[in-house]
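Lab notebook, bench 4. The sequencing result for the construct came back, and we need a structural model before the next group meeting so we can plan mutations. Quick request posted to the team channel:

Model the 3D structure of this chain.
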Amino acid sequence: MAQTLTTSSRDRLLQLQEWVVRVWLGAAALCSIAVTAGIVAVLAVETGRFFRQVSPLEFFTGTEWAPLFDPRRFGVLPLVCGTVLVTFGASLIAIPCGMLTALYLSEYASAGARRWIKPLLEILAGIPTVVYGYFALAAVTPALRFVLPRTEVFNGASAAVVVGIMILPMVASLCDDAFRAVPQYIRHGAYAVGATRLEVSVRVVLPAALSGVLAAFVLALSRAVGETMAVTLAAGATPKLTLNPLVSIQTMTAYMVQISLGDTPAGTVAYQTLFAVGALLFLITLGMNLVAQRVLRAFREVYE
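Done. Here's the predicted structure in token form:
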């Protein structure tokens, strides 16, 4: 009888522990949802107040951005153009270099080489972004001006280079995980019919891991879109609707830093542009993440 009571007490204790764990996990999930909902609510409310004073047509189609000076202009296209310019330039560096690095780590590198290269990539990912900004000013921009003397001190090309270096470890790590998830029997089958290592890497492993590779590209680009301090220091603060990467430009995140310094009175229309630009940036990154999920579902390969 005593043994039965002891077993029953142990079961109740285990049930209580399970209940406590479920409550804590549920609270953590609700906390993350509440924080996200709060951010969206603040952006929506302040952006609504902004659009009561500024026409959405002017905001989305205007080609001049000068909310702090008279006459005021609220066309966000120069900021979007600067963001796209930096992101596109960063992708030209990070996507091919990151994918090739991942292919080398997955298909060619020995165990010893992986032990050296992977930590180096992690070091690149762990460097503070403000350090990348100063690196752009101290090294990248002088190199660009030596090759192209007309390059301005603050320019989009320098920002694109450092952002590309920043997101390269993300591309390499995610692509490496995707490549290593491809089963070995697929590689062995290709080798059995006489394929070379290059053919196996490019024609077998890469197509088999296509969903993970494309998702890595989209996630890395969304990271580049949201980059702040490196772009603020390297690209400058001159909103221009231009495709010339050698001149000073301004991205959406750099403008948000400018407004957040505290010089603009709260409650003014200039202050509310912070939330309007933030809401647009939020929608862009959200759209990119949704695209990444659709790509994963469309190209997902299931292996057994």
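Residues 104 and 176 are 9 Å apart (CA to CA).
Will bring this to the meeting.
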